[in-house]
Design brief:
three-stranded antiparallel sheet; 375 residues; binds pyridoxal-5'-phosphate; 15% strand; seven-stranded mixed sheet; alpha/beta; 12 helices
Length: 375
């Protein structure tokens, strides 16, 4: 196993640092239910993300599912979203009994094509749920304008965009709410974990009710909530990882820049455009293998795998072609041709803070050799 290079490697603090962080729990025996660590991480994230309200969750998916529920959209409502995302985004809509309507993405940064949104709006449309995919920011100003014109809510799936800033504004501050994932594979992790971030004071109580059975006091239950609380061990991991995040992102940047140096401008390889006015988090390094490259995405995937390098077909398949949505009238990858094109050709290459640059070079050598030998 040690020779394999996985697509990602979870950030972890030193063992001793984590032990020190959880030591107080052996005195208090307070393991969950919004304890000291939970409160501390929440305060630290509100400061780091520069957002008035951060509600912590046990994972990103339940955070998203719950914030959609909190908006209390009428039964039968439609939500405009993209299929070029992780299963969670679409599932969160469908599990709320709502209908996802799939909008295509843009060919340069793979986020929702904001100019295709209005054509999809019907009298049932209640919200737009775009994804800051790979940490690329959606065109937030234009989306806000469309939402305002049609009285729609905007919920961002910001699972990939932790720490990203647009014109100096944290990614947590756009739309009516943003969901972050702190899953082990993300730029910032709490083992499993997530959060909903927003500015409206009115949403605080309902988001807290959602994750803790609607319990407001020892004898007061006011809301039919579920259980999606972040526990103290998760919060402690977050406190430790947050201390080192700046350094982690700086080292990710070196890896991403090396990939770009080696792969930019190669015929048949398409890299994400570097977004103007965006301070990135270097979460992923997707490469699209165009038909002119000389080797297909699957051939490159196999060639890397043969050398113990695990890349990921992320996102393939796209969610509007999932078997579980076969009966959904809005499904069908042909309705989102750019997303379908990308899904058939994209590979995210290994990227994590301690990936050695010599390994990045080796990965690039293998990729480039594929283009030369086949075709
Ligand atoms: C990771 C991820 C999620 C779900 O987050 P979890 O913390 O794993 O539940 C949702 N959307 C996207 C785009 C993701 O990458």
């Amino acid at each position: 196993m040690s020779d394999l290079i996985q697509v990602t490697r979870s950030s972890m603090p030193e063992y001793e640092e984590y032990c020190e962080e959880i030591r107080s729990m052996w005195d208090s025996h307070w393991l969950t239910n919004m304890g000291e660590k939970h409160q501390q991480l929440q305060r630290e994230l509100e400061a780091y993300l520069d957002c008035p309200h951060v509600v912590l969750y046990t994972n990103g998916h339940l955070a998203l599912e719950n914030v959609i529920a909190a908006m209390q959209f009428p039964a039968g409502s439609e939500i405009i979203t993209t299929p070029f995302t992780f299963a969670s985004t679409t599932h969160a809509i469908v599990r709320n009994g709502l209908t996802p309507v799939f909008c295509d993405v843009k060919p340069d940064d793979y986020t929702i094509d904001e100019e295709k949104i209005e054509a999809l709006i019907t009298e049932k449309t209640a919200a737009i749920l775009p994804v800051h995919v790979y940490g690329n920011m959606c065109r937030t100003e234009r989306i806000a304008q469309i939402a305002q014109k049609h009285a729609l809510k905007v919920i961002y799936d910001a699972a990939h965009a932790f720490g990203v800033r647009y014109r100096g504004v944290s990614s947590a501050n756009f739309g009516d709410a943003s969901m972050f994932s702190f899953h082990a594979t993300k730029v910032f992790n709490t083992i499993e974990g997530g959060a909903v971030c927003f500015r409206a004071d009115a949403l605080v109580e309902v988001m807290n009710d959602m994750k803790n059975f609607g319990i407001r006091g020892p004898e007061q239950v006011v809301f039919v909530g579920g259980n999606a609380k972040m526990n103290e061990f998760q919060a402690a991991m977050g406190i430790c990882n947050l201390r080192h995040l700046g350094g982690e992102i700086a080292r990710r940047k070196l890896v991403a820049e090396r990939y770009r140096e080696r792969l930019q401008g190669v015929a048949g390889l398409r890299l994400c455009t570097v977004q103007k006015d965006v301070e990135p988090n270097y979460a992923y390094f997707p490469v699209v293998f165009e038909d002119t490259f000389g080797a297909s995405r699957d051939e490159v995937f196999t060639a890397l795998g043969a050398q113990g390098i695990i890349a990921r077909k992320y996102f393939y398949p796209i969610t509007n072609s999932f078997a579980c949505y076969a009966d959904l009238p809005t499904a069908g990858p042909e309705k989102t041709p750019i997303a379908a094109y990308l899904a058939a050709r994209v590979l995210t290459l290994p990227l994590y803070a301690d990936l050695a640059l010599r390994d990045v070079d080796r990965i690039c050598d293998i990729v480039l050799a594929c283009g030369k030998t086949s075709g």
